[in-house]
Amino acid sequence: MKLTKQGLRWWSLAGSLALLLVLLPARALAQGGATGSLNAPDIAGLFNIVLVLAILVFLLVEGLLIFAIVRYRRRSPDEMPEQVHGNNAMELSWTVGSGILVIILFFFTLGFYQQPRTLPEDSEPVTVEVTGHTWYWEYYYPETGVRTETTLNVPAGRPVVLDITSADVQHSFWVPEISGKVDAIPGRVQRMWFQVDEPGQFVGQCAEYCGLQHYDMLITVNVMEEQEFASWMDGEAAAVAEAAAATEEEAAALAGDPAAGEQLYNSMGCMACHSLDGSTLVGPSFQGLGARAGEVLDGVSAEDYLRESIVDPCAYLAEGFDNCVMPQNFGDRLSAQDLADLIAFLLEQ
Q1: What is the mean pLDDT of the chain?
Q2: For residue 135, is the peptide bond before it cis, meaning its omega torsion is within 30 degrees of 0?
Q3: Would you say residue 246 lies in a domain?
């Protein structure tokens, strides 16, 4: 189509208005958004800016499309529209306009990433290891050994550090009012932190399609008063210690069957991370483990060391394997007899 002077003026006016609508609210939008945690508004503000830009581009494109359909429609069966081969002014406008949008996004994104991402000084963070499963979230507090599956309990007024990974397929941890999405990737640990100053509950979900029950993989973050959280943690830690002591006593009294332990080594997926021939996989090799297990920790027998390494794999990390990616629910998945069988098999390596 041929762009007339009137059409060019209209085009320039529309472009100027769109740019004005972007620049005026952008700074205000960058300061808005979710207020659940200290570091949530920044990323929510970025989302608002991108949303406004997308809406403006959509309105501009669709508006021009409708205008062209109405203005240059065929009015009679014999009418033949003028044949054109492009319009330099229009193409230049689209190119310059797109470049301006990219620059605007770069400006606000750069400001976001230049902000400090470290924990507040002199803070006492609570660390929680988050593992995605098909289809639920597992929360493990390494300092106390407490493990939950339904709700992530955290204290108000203290930073909370989440080490996020997956036990099977890729998931994505997302609580909109607290922070942005963090992918849960098998074999890799992603770290994020947040701090909520007022008690309350925040709801999120897995933001990465992970299977048939993805819709039901919800997240509940329960922010508790400091004293309430401490009381809850003390009660859960006492229950964990009692259960662990009973399990260890029961397992120690059982005789292990190495053949049954070898079957567990294969069926539980241990061979995917631990070889028997000395080759290095995700985790250390089991070759020679029986001979060196009793020498790893002073005063700890080989049986006790292996038992603790299976039930609480993050308590001690082998040299050269600093990331604890081993599933931490084998204490729940293995019976006392299973544990004794697996230890008997490992002692023979």
Answers
A1: 79
A2: yes
A3: no
